Amino acid sequence: MIGYHTPNHPLVAAFRSQSLNRPRRLTPRIIKMAPKLSDYFSAGELLASKGDLERPISGLAMDSRRVMPGNLFFALPGRRTDGNSFIDEAIMRGAVAIVAEKIPSGTAARVTYLKVADARRALASVTQRYFNFPDQSLELIGVTGTNGKTTVTNLIKHLLSTSTQRVGLIGTVHYDLGARIVPSYRTTPESLELYGMLAQMRDAGCRQAAMEVSSHGIDQYRVLGMQFGVAVFTNLTRDHLDYHRTMEAYFEVKSRLFNGGTGRAPQVAAINVDDPYGRQLAAALPGHVKVVTFGESPGALVRAENLRLNFKNTQFRLVWPGGVLEIESPFIGRYNVSNLLAAFAACHALGRDPAVIAARMKSFPGVPGRMERIEENQPYNVLVDYAHTDDALRNALGMLRAVTPRRLFVVFGCGGNRDRLKRPLMTAAVQEFADFAWATADNPRTEALSQIFADMKTGVKSLEKISFVDDRRRAISLALDAAREGDCLLIAGKGHETYQEFADTIIPFDDRQVVRELIGIKNIKPG
Description:
Elements: H1 9-17, H2 29-32, E1 48-50, E2 59-61, E3 71-74, H3 87-92, E4 97-100, E5 112-115, H4 119-130, E6 139-144, H5 149-160, E7 168-170, E8 174-176, E9 181-183, H6 191-203, E10 208-212, H7 215-219, E11 230-233, H8 241-244, H9 247-259, E12 268-272, H10 276-284, E13 290-295, E14 302-309, E15 314-320, E16 323-329, H11 334-349, H12 354-361, E17 372-373, E18 381-385, H13 390-403, E19 408-412, H14 422-433, E20 436-439, H15 449-457, E21 466-468, H16 472-482, E22 488-492, E23 499-501, E24 506-508, H17 511-522
Parallel strand pairs: 2-3, 3-4, 4-5, 6-10, 6-11, 7-10, 11-12, 12-13, 13-14, 18-22, 19-20, 19-22, 20-21
Antiparallel strand pairs: 1-5, 7-8, 8-9, 14-15, 15-16, 17-18, 23-24
């Protein structure tokens, strides 16, 4: 569980000290009080079983390296590895029961084996029961879409939090579990970790939680069975097509969060109808789901009018069926207006006072790595942003172009082992707005940077306006050298990330820290 839920250590210790071959009459009292396998599987979920279904367990595990004595181990199928290959290791580490889509030909007499139709679905269902349905103790807001998830969830958390009430958060930057904040390693974790984190929030006194819900998380049943009070749809643009293959398949997966495809439909769906996929989604939802539309479209229930956009803040008139308010936010950019509307729609759907929501919008400090301004007394503007799709780059650069008095520079890259077809689109988006760009490494992973660059170069229209530089730190340094008073430099793609991922290693690398270090070095006067 990577520390997200504390194991029952006395129970684990009891399993560790007990020989599983001893007669049941010698079972320690603490093990007799432990939950049993039969407590977590309903009728019809098991296709077959071998061994004792009344066997007590100490907890759940899906990673054989983290199995503790007495655990129930789930052998999950994967794109790269098959969990069935790790069953022997799990048993060696103390697993007393195995859930898999097939029972191994060679079985251990002291272990119970459970065959299910889908191990990931079983993991979600069992985990929800094991942690006693924590999602039903929280007002849970799920946010999905290609762009905006991190900003909207962080904004919702800010708007709902009070001096006496903490709000949980699960997302790309970090996980706020109520009593503590821990670094994020995945936008939407596996169901075992998710339900464990929600249980921690519940036990820490949280009554609401905002969660980023990725398409991978939906498709791999990580949010199966969760009861969302509100589900938010931000937009849909080209991304993750290395996984989903087509935009239609991508949209179908996203739609499951709203139409009951994850096992439960939300009570309220807040949908961006400025986006064509949002309009399609809103029109197709079942009648029992309350739909709250938002956007600049005249027909949106929650909409923005009379926008005033500048480099320091954004102002607009917020209109909803119950009234009108003037909004001022430190957010910049038209796409952030959509994010503000999404957060307002979600909080209003939960019954929060619109006037209080509007007032709190003004004090939102922003999200790390999302249009984060770097101030080191330099005469030009530097911003670091997570934009890593052509649509996100076009939105960010279009906004900056409109408010930049002189030149607009960009440092960007494309991730390795990801959708290759979006690379020329990203290059074209950058060239559409930037006066000059430095294309460089993002997270190459196991793919050769030369191949990534080759794909990016097919989108080049003005060769004199772009330079390809292998080393990201060098590219940032060159961009800073070129910047003058009144210019703006956007460093895109990695945002809040504090590392760079290569084939055989991960190295520390934070765009924000690198910029600060380089500006400091360049400001040192000789002699």
